[in-house]
Amino acid sequence: MELKRRSFLKGMGALGGAATLGGGYATIALATRDASAVEKSGSAGVKHFKTSCCQCVNFCGLDVTVKGGVIRNISPDVARAPYYNRGICPKGVSAAFHTYNPYRLKKPLKRTNPVKGRDQDPKWVEVSWDEALDTIAARMKKIRAENPSKLVWQDGQGRYLSNTPLLAAFCAAYGTPNFVHRTTLCIASRNIADLVTWGSFTTLPDLEYTNLLLNFGATYYEGEQWARWLDYQTALARERGMKVVVIDPRLSNNAAKADEWIPIRPGTDSVMILAMAKLLIDSGNIDEESLVAFTNAPELVRPDGNIAKTADGKPLVFDTVSNTTRPFAEGVKPALKGSWPHEGATLKTAFQIFMDSLAGVTPEYAEEVTGIPAATLRRLTDEVAKQARIGSTIVIDGQKLRYRPVAVHTFRGVTAREFGVQGWRTGMLLEMLLGGMDAVGGMALFNPNGAAKTLEPSKAEYPPKRADLAMSAYFPYATQDVGQQVNLTALDPKAYGLPYEPEMQLIYGSNRPFSASDSDKQFLGMAKTFNVVIDVLMTEVAWYADIVLPDDTFLEAWHVSMTRWIPDARQPIAIRQPVVSDVYNIGYDAHRILWELAKRTGFRDGFADELNKKWGLKEVTFKPGRDYSSREAVEIVWSDKTKKDFSTALENAFVGRKLDTKARYLSGVESVFKGPGKPKMKFYADQLVGTFETISGHVKNLGAKNIDLAEFKTGLSPLPIKEHAFPKAHREAKDYPFYLITHKVMHRTQTGITCTNPILNAMGGTDDNSVRINKATADKMRIKTGDMVVIETRVGKVKGKASVVQGIRPDTVSVSYHFGQWSPGLPAQARKGIDINRVLELNADIISGMNSFNDTKCKIYRA
Ligand SMILES: Nc1nc2c(c(=O)[nH]1)N[C@H]1C(S)=C(S)[C@@H](COP(=O)(O)OP(=O)(O)OC[C@H]3O[C@@H](n4cnc5c(=O)[nH]c(N)nc54)[C@H](O)[C@@H]3O)O[C@H]1N2
Ligand SMILES: Nc1nc2c(c(=O)[nH]1)N[C@H]1C(S)=C(S)[C@@H](COP(=O)(O)OP(=O)(O)OC[C@H]3O[C@@H](n4cnc5c(=O)[nH]c(N)nc54)[C@H](O)[C@@H]3O)O[C@H]1N2
Ligand code: SF4
Ligand SMILES: [Mo]
Asked: Is the alpha carbon torsion for 46, 47, 48, 54 positive or negative?
């Protein structure tokens, strides 16, 4: 039976007031395409479902109460606490409103106005699922016969809903290399800094033992990944006495709760850290033993920047035992500092080059660049040196372990920018100087890998194969795709030497053009392709679609969920399960859409085959010749991965395991990198030098265009240098006096979803965003809270309300993301506020392809 809007809204009202539960619900009849959940819940009984949230990248465990087939309550799953989240946030608590949202898409829609634009009415007509799927499949067939690369897949939230292998298998079976996720809009530069430094990615502070946390703009009280672990663990650690220093141009909630807030000038963290590094080195407060044992800091560098190697490729060090240059083998004691003649050239250790490069980076110079008083930097560095307890060990469970209780931490603060990879490399170098990588209380690393391809020069291919230019000469280490590049390439493929034109985009759970900097330009690119969008709302990307397909929400659908690791536990697998069933009678979910498209386009068996490969399934597998429902697919993956009965999935929604002390501290950098004959962490990222040489060759020999070699040389520097604190937008926009940054707010997630959630919108003050301006600045300009002001950048202008605050640097303004959506298909409440991405400059990070978010400069004036 159809859900009638009036009874639905009545239900919503009652849901808001938990105390008034009762009447009304029995009248809401729920469609039961996949009846399992509703059957289990019964019509009157109360049932609890364990599942995983997917409204942001935290993937928290949820415990959902359903009564009479209606979601009544969402709480944290207490069983997940030892493995990850202790609580959930307001978005998770109110997720029912996402599912029962009257603004959801309910039927497939076809555009009848061929012209795409913000101001163009697409003139939607409802079509049947068969018509929609056949139309899409016909086009996919045609493209596949011509050149399958012309189909570009893009996803955002969608990948997290379904997990990577499902979507990757679809693209592989179809034959397109253009499988593009959103990570360069998110934290690709952080991940890729990790990948080029220690061969895998993600680090967390080892909060159980950390005594000093240096947090560079990570906001686990407002946003952040791992937030529902970090918030609780920092609280515990602070009770123990841990000190927190937050470095952020803005008084974030984290800064407000810290022991110290250091309001740094945006983009200049590298210089702050380099100055601290120099102070530590000059005062002898570094862990020389760890630098020699684990990193390539003692390796000898040739004048051309490459590491000197033996004929069979072994890096050379200077052995202080034999006084000769030789590989780091048993019995060799490498020198950390110094230079030596070798075969007619002078070789310096990588560490010596780093020291030499710091010559001018004094605290006084850093003060000039960062705005942080030199005395503050000296005091902070002294504190770091004292707290790091270099050389100390601690015994835990009978294991004697390196103990360095100082952790450097960031997410997007240092990385969502042009020199994002270098920014986070600087942070890791600081941790390496202290010997804190994988040490107790230091920086915990996830699965370090000394054999990773990212520790070698990139092929930096030219011409590029992919529409997003990933791994090409343009973005040589973009192992996590370049989300914002597809639409830019579509505007002019020849400018990048792409041998074909992207013709069709299949977009699942992403509002890509809206979420990238200089977003109007993104939409120009999108207007050129045939677009199919699978979403739950008429977002901006849907507004530019040719066909829109509705989807079930994460509370209605089966998915294998992404999970999060923490220093002392792993969750190998988690699932989402429907707690209610297809509330709006949509009839299809994304999973079924993919099977239908594979079948109708003619690659269903290939899809099944690729699913087995991408999931690495061995015993329980997908078979050719049939479709699978999403529940069946989840059951297959669960069974093969866990060898446990599916009833345990229904009951727990995840499996977890705790790590013992040995696995936690001795299986990472200790086993992969330590000592003679082992690969080394890249203190000095020599592979970037080789990569630069390859790219220079492509420019000279193959005529690669749009590559400024001087900029690439700075970007691909093997060591972080002070130039990384001066992004292009800061250097060039001289007439724009203010730094413009963005941040997240707790009650909103990205775009879509929460913008239509009535509870979150009703919360006072959170239904709007504003331009945060420092009081001294505002007074000078006679701007008061509530005044309308214009933000003008080199890209464009936007208007918004001013908020005059103390908690931001006088030379900086900040605007929260998530607001100002403009799709006419969204309700008015979702369209309030400032769409800040329209005015942000895009100067992507050369190494990773990361979109720059926090580098723009602007003018501010009263509207
Ligand atoms: N509520 C909520 N939570 C979320 C999300 C959400 O949308 N809403 N999204 C999730 C996702 S996908 C992600 S990737 C994470 C991201 O989580 P965070 O990394 O916490 O990301 P941002 O909100 O981008 O935070 C940027 C912070 O950096 C500061 N900053 C800006 N410029 C600089 C600078 O030059 N130096 C320093 N040191 N700081 C600077 C800003 O003031 C801001 O506090 O959040 C996740 N959690
Ligand atoms: N200025 C500025 N810009 C930013 C940020 C910032 O802090 N400041 N944050 C950046 C970050 S960290 C990220 S990760 C990117 C994210 O950018 P995107 O990859 O574009 O992701 P979202 O905006 O989360 O888009 C998610 C889409 O999925 C849809 N959706 C939600 N649930 C479902 C579902 O169940 N099924 C389907 N099919 N669709 C669903 C939503 O309606 C929405 O359209 O944005 C970035 N943009
Ligand atoms: S932090 Fe993210 S995943 Fe966790 S409950 Fe909130 S929205 Fe859901
Ligand atoms: Mo993100």
From this structure: negative
Ligand 2 atom closest to residue 590's alpha carbon, by position in its atom list:
38
Classify strands 443-445 and 203-205 as parallel, antiparallel or unpaired: antiparallel
Can you tell me whether residue 55 is helix, strand or coil?
A: coil
Give per-residue pLDDT as tens, 744-759: 999 888 777 888 888 8
CA angle 631, 634, 638 (to 5 degrees): 140
pLDDT tens digits for range 436-449? 999 999 999 999 99
Nearest CA to ligand 1 atom 45: 224
Beta bridge partners of 261: 246
Which residue, among 687, 697, 188, has the nearest Cα to 462 in the 3D structure?
697
d(CA 173, CA 597): 12
pLDDT of 44 strictly over 70? no
Mean pLDDT for 185-196 is: 98
Q: Which two tokens stand for residue 772?
A: 């945060």
Residue 251, helix vs strand vs coil: coil
pLDDT at position 633, please? Answer: 97
For residue range 539-566, what is the model confidence (pLDDT) as tens digits? 999 999 999 999 999 999 999 999 999 9
Peptide bond into 463 cis (omega under 30): yes
Instruction: Report the alpha-carbon distance of residue 456 to residue 313 in Å, rounded.
Output: 12
Q: Which atom of ligand 1 is nearest to the CA of 269?
A: 36
Tell me the pLDDT band of 837, cut-offs 50, 70 and 90: very high
Coil, strand or helix at 804? strand
What is the whole-number distance in angstroms between the Cα of residue 856 and the centre of ligand 1? 16
Residue 717 has pLDDT above 60, yes or no: yes
For residues 234 and 211, give the distance between their C-alpha atoms in angstroms, rounded to a whole number: 10
CB of 111 closer than 8 Å to CB of 99 = no
Distance CA(75)–CA(73), nearest Å, equals: 7
Q: Going by CA atoms, what residue is nearest to atom 25 of ligand 2? A: 510
**Chain position carrying tokens 């993600």:** 202
Long-range CB contact pairs, 605-608, < 8 A, 24+: 606/173, 606/174, 607/169, 607/170, 607/173
Per DSSP, helices labelled H in 306-419 are 350-357, 363-370, 374-388
Bridge partners of residue 342, in order along the sequence = 345
> Mean pLDDT across the chain, nearest whole number?
93
Q: Which ligand is nearest to the CA of 510?
A: 2
Q: Is 98 in the pocket of ligand 1 (CB under 6 A)?
A: no
Residue nearest to atom 2 of ligand 3 (CA): 56
Helices then strands, each counted (H, E), the chain: 31, 32
Q: pLDDT > 70: what percent of the chain?
A: 94
Residue 594 to residue 166: CA distance in whole angstroms: 9
Does pLDDT of 30 surpass 70? no
Say if residues 614 and 172 touch (Cβ distance below 8 Å): yes
